[in-house]
Amino acid sequence: MTVDARTAAGVHAGLAPDQDRRAPERGYAGLSWWLEDAGEELVPRPPLDGSMDVDVAILGAGFTGLWTALELLKREPSLRVAVVEREIAGFGASGRNGGWCSGELNISMRTLAERHGAEAAKAVRRTMHDTVDEVGSASAAEGIDACFRKGGAISVARTTAELPAMWAEVEEYERFGFGEQCVPLDRASLDDHLRVPGAAGAVFMPACAAVHPGRLVRGLARAVEARGGEILEQTGVTGFARRGRRSGTLMGRATGSDERATLRTRRGDVRADTVVLAGEAYLTQLPQLHRQLLPIYSLIVLTEPLSDEQWSSIGWQGHECVSSFRLTIDYLSRTPDGRILFGGRGAPYHFGSRIAPAFDRDSDTHAMLRRMFAKWFPTLRGIAFTHAWGGPLGMPRDWEPTFSYDRETGIASARGYTGHGVATANLAGRVLADLITDRRTEITELPFVNHRSRDWEPEPLRWLGARYVQLSMMRLDRLGERDGKAPTGRSLAERLSRH
What we know:
- Helix 2 (63-75) runs parallel beside helix 7, helix 2 (63-75) packs parallel to helix 10 (421-436) and helix 3 crosses helix 4 (118-141).
- Strands 1, 2, 8, 9, 12, 13, 19 and 20 form an eight-stranded mixed sheet that branches. The protein has an eight-stranded mixed sheet with strand order 5-6-4-15-16-17-14-18, sandwiched between helices.
- Among the domains are: 11-147 and 210-245 and 255-293 and 394-456, FAD/NAD(P)-binding domain (3-Layer(bba) Sandwich); 460-499, no CATH class.
- It is globular.
- It is an alpha+beta fold.
- Mean pLDDT is 92; it is low at 1-14, 16-23 and 247-252.
- The chain is 30% helix and 23% strand.
- 48% of the residues are buried.
């Protein structure tokens, strides 16, 4: 393995110059099938035209930024809220994900209890489960047809090597009093949902819904505008400044002036009482947050629509989201028009936390996903795949999301969802809106509030560690599939990634 020195260039260039358009040849619709099927032309809104003053300035028109804007305007309709987006609403992970609205997080209840206590861990789980329904009801209330289908999730142990992880999850849910949220399925019960040849076991989790993220994120943008918010697109943020006081001298006398929190762009500054940083993985391109997250790519392939006979052959008649217990993660969902989405990890971390359009598509990883699909559903071998895409997600060093607000500096942020952002972003928006409007509620007491993960290691340690863990996890998965031996949990890679 070698490191291309060129990948280190431009890391601190901000979120990208306005001239660096990142849409593929087919325009923004080519970023994912979700955006292609969003039901509207993806015409960019006007950019910022000179500096402006507002009450709240939000970086990023994805789920986090838009839910935050919407919740703020619901609480305080008179607020002047501006959302600043480098491309278009839904350009990032919000328009490219797997279509899961899940009540799960990557961090376990066990780890949360070790860090924050059992009651805090339970509060997080209850809140996340409730948030799935909140996404559905809030979308409906705003007139957004997000194709919300609450069919639950099925996690399948496809080999005997995955059974220990499955039973550990069942035990954890029972231990914390959520046994009804993680129900073991015998072979007949699994077949009632989905036929997976050779499956060794499975669990059903009701707190999950399938959604159309493209229609949801574009609908949220319209809802924000309907309530008086402004969205400024094709306006790249190059930096931000905290609220403070600038000192100086005039004719030998000390002077000072209050400065507002600010988003810096090449088109002008957006000054505000509060700045919200909601760019998820893209926040790593800002110098102040460069090591707060690790941008990891998740890639997806999508089939053509299945016929009734093909659906019957695999028994997938509902709208369950599906995954396995692989260490390297795979995830499946059923689109509203009858396709199967198959996604997973495996694309390499890029030196310097670089994010680039070329990384959205990785031929080796997409080919691997198509091969894995054939193992899941051998009766569908030979089916056509019509789309392939990907994008970065943000992984914090301790696996915990952050919802923060510092009233003194005027800076708020939500980040670090590690691929579970559809529901978590809704929760983040409600938490930030409560914090900014000075409301103390149950959700502002969650352990993620005003939490800050420690920074990732500097390069080249970051690249060496990330690639070591990625390759080791893939090797363990291959060994488990070949020999049926479960990971021991004692390997260095497993200890480093314990969560």
